[in-house]
Design brief:
Largest sheet: none
Shape: elongated
Number of strands: 0
Radius of gyration: 15 Å
Strand content: under 5%
Order of helices and strands: HHHH
């Protein structure tokens, strides 16, 4: 059982790192970054097989994106490369992946502590 928990945590960390690396390397190519991030998201959601994770994924994606759009609109920061309300489209998936990652890693840590 401990081995599986470790594998799950390593998968979660790999998921987060893959998301970060795609943004770091391909942020200027919005279409490519969006497709790669979507592939990472699908892999994560298929592995986790959880309606709750899917709901958190969508919630974080929608509200994170709305927060970014508002921040850009009021001038807090801006994106030099954008295609959707002055933000890059891939940002939705980054927020969604972040929400799913935080939920999953917290779940793994909580379950480990309970045993």
């Amino acid at each position: 059982m401990k081995k599986q928990k470790l594998k799950n945590i390593l998968f979660d960390i790999g998921f987060a790192l893959a998301t970060f690396i795609v943004v770091l390397l391909f942020y200027e190519n919005i279409a490519l970054a969006t497709i790669l991030l979507l592939i990472i998201a699908i892999i994560g959601l298929l592995k986790w097989k959880s309606k709750r994770t899917l709901m958190i994924f969508l919630f974080a994606g929608v509200f994170g994106t709305i927060a970014e759009i508002i921040a850009v609109k009021v001038g807090i920061w801006d994106y030099q490369i954008s295609n959707f309300y002055n933000i890059p489209l891939w940002l939705f998936i980054v927020w969604a992946n972040a929400g799913a990652f935080i939920y999953q890693i917290a779940k793994e840590i909580r379950e480990k502590r309970l045993k």
